[in-house]
Amino acid sequence: MLNEVKLRNTQLEEIDPSSIPDIEAYQREKFKNPRGRFTSKIMELKSNEYNKAYKLKGGEDLIQITSLLNKGIIENWDKSVGGYIETFVPKGDDSYTEYINLKESKAVIFFTKNYKSGNANYILYQNTRQNVTFFITYISNSPDSVKINNMHNIIKEMRFE
User: Fold this and answer.
1) Whole-number Å distance between alpha carbons of 51 and 109
2) pTM score > 0.85 for this model?
C-alpha cells in the first residue's frame, strides 16, 4: 500500500485534496485555454492508505497515485497491462502507448493523443524491489510532447526510502 512505503519524487509536490474540492472548477480556473474535455467531476483527489494527491512541481498539472493490490497485475504484469490500456484508451491512431523498463521498475504510459477524449493521461508503474504497483492519473493541459516528457520524469524520479 502507498502508506507503507515512503515515496520521494522531485517532480511531485504532495497536496491536501481538500485544497481542490472541485476538480472540474480547478481545471476551468487553471487551464485557461483547454485542449480537451476536463476530467469529470466523478474523479476526486484523495489521500488515504491507497491514494495520494500531487501537483507537478512548478505547474498546475494534477497527479493522483493509487496503489494497486490486485494480484493479477502484480503477478502477471504483461497480460494485465493490456486490459488497463483497453479500458482507459480507445484503440486506434489516436492512442499513445509507451513501455518503459528500468533497472528495478517498469512502467507504461498511455493516453489518447491531442486531447480527443479528455485531459486525463495514465501511467501504470511497478517497482519490483519495493514490490509496489501504482496506477497514476496525470491531468494536464500541456501539449502531448510536454506531458510525455513530464511523465518520463515522474517515472525516472520514483524513489523509495
Assistant:
1) 19
2) yes
Distance CA 69, CA 67 (A): 6
Please state, in angstroms and rounded to a whole number, the distance separating the CA atoms of residues 112 and 90.
7
Compute φ and ψ for 149, nearest 5 degrees: -60, -45
CA angle 42, 122, 101 (to 5 degrees): 160
Q: Which three cell numbers stand for residue 149?
A: 516528457
> Sign (positive/negative) of CA torsion 19, 133, 151, 9?
positive
Write the CA distances from 18 to 26, 61, 65, integer angstroms. Answer: 12, 16, 16
- Residue 87: partners with Cβ closer than 8 Å, 6 or more residues away: none
pLDDT in tens, 127-159: 988 888 999 999 999 999 999 999 999 999 999
DSSP-assigned letters across all residues of 8-48: E-TTEEE--GGG-S-HHHHHHHH-SS-SSPPPPTT-----S
